[in-house]
Request: fold
Amino acid sequence: MKKVVVGIDIGGTNTAFGIVDIEGNIYGSDKVSTQAYPEVNDFIEELCGRIKNLLDSLPFLYELQGVGIGAPNANYFKGTIEDAANLPWKGIVFFVDKFKKYFSGIPVYMTNDAKAAAMGEMIYGDAKGMKNFIVITLGTGLGSGFVVDGRLMLGHNSIAGELGHVTINPNGRICGCGRRGCLETYASATGIKRTVFKLLADNTDPSEFRDLSFNQLTAEMITGAALNGDSLAVEAYEYTGRVLGSALANAVAVTDPEAIFLFGGLARAGKYILEPTKKYMEQSLMPNFRGKVKILLSAVDGMNAAILGASALVWQHHK
Amino acid sequence: MKKVVVGIDIGGTNTAFGIVDIEGNIYGSDKVSTQAYPEVNDFIEELCGRIKNLLDSLPFLYELQGVGIGAPNANYFKGTIEDAANLPWKGIVFFVDKFKKYFSGIPVYMTNDAKAAAMGEMIYGDAKGMKNFIVITLGTGLGSGFVVDGRLMLGHNSIAGELGHVTINPNGRICGCGRRGCLETYASATGIKRTVFKLLADNTDPSEFRDLSFNQLTAEMITGAALNGDSLAVEAYEYTGRVLGSALANAVAVTDPEAIFLFGGLARAGKYILEPTKKYMEQSLMPNFRGKVKILLSAVDGMNAAILGASALVWQHHK
Reply:
């Protein structure tokens, strides 16, 4: 019997899931609209029904080892989703308890997307065999998952890894969290848009971005322009890497990782994000850490990364 | 038979050691001059001889569970002391291997003083039962020991916890590590001396410190003056707490601890260091961490803290 797990990625619009083996092979995947279910019980009923259908359709005998769920504002210890701004369900939702009614006896683990990405890198990606590393997710915001001595660092309240809200500059950019100068106001898809607008304000160079509004501009456009050698886009990535690299130097001093993996939207800029981040991190590092920490692009990143990351939460415990 | 361990604190001048039980009772202690032994083998021979004498003098039957050593620049994984500026032995010293020749079959653990202080707090102090906490040692420099999910965070190279070298301000004070703006240039015994001199430069208020040279001034004097209500000394502690509190807010965002313990020289200022640190940390915290993290004075701090911390390294494994 083949051992499989279910990986579920709960997003604001859709919830994707798939059946995964220890090698990271995905045997079928499907999705459910998150937005279509204002009542969480209805959502879970539909989701679990669809998962069971998918399991039933497997062309081989299987042994379900567990279910891993990635969700915003997930509390690993309590199995709750708490005050998630982008989900239809308000307050504290006892998601795992409700979910387990449909899968009794099966272990269910839930954490946020950045911690799931770290587990994905450890089980399926280039962090295989590493005991101490960090995964940085550069999406709309900046998330991070720290692995310490082979285990996910959760913290006392299950909210460790908020590197996106480390203060870079107390007089810096206003953040959605209500403060100023958080790392994610610089190093994220939104952050690099803000940087492009700062550069458009600071200089008079012609740029294709002068014809776009803030709301029209996307990080993908900036990445595309950088890959085409556009100087303003390259400069925006250089600035992003400078801020990110300096912040990572501090994270290294505290946690002494073997490697840092960049994951998500901005990581698709490849060397344009990797090189400045590495250069400025090395410059900012305390001497005894220099040359010791690899900065790498995630090997799991891509279409199914979120499903894989969620599924890895189970393999971490049940290899 | 009583289970005991040996705790050893290797300092630049003297090396202190004692025999300790799980309650933190010390059954005799002694010390050896570190400086008197330019050859490490001679030092270890003398040290181990003295430890055996102390063990032989115990008025009860004992079972030696292990030896814990706190030393500057100690590598936990390799059992080495590496390029310790304040010790007579240069380069990489395979201290634990040499030491074990005198105590064959006995587990020997070695780490630096801040990590040992964290273990001491967990085994004997107010971190008993806590799984996630930080100990900050405010001595000549600033050290830190992070406990994550009940275990000491060592990192990939055994050099995690260098919070003293997190960059607070890239244009800030010059640090002994060769960079600028490291936390310990502000928050340490040396840091607060620098702060007093900055305040003496910035204003014209009379102060008892205007009659002292930089080399004459000590952190103890500043602490004494603060406890007597001297306004400049209180202001120096306020400034120290502001810098420390802001830096701790970032450490909290990454590691989500239940509590932070202040240990060492500056901690003796009590509320003068505790209150500003707490106030500015709360102000700087991301909203979802506010009100959740205790800042406390170490319960182990005092004359035998270093011996207790070192001994705790053994109990962590052999309770």
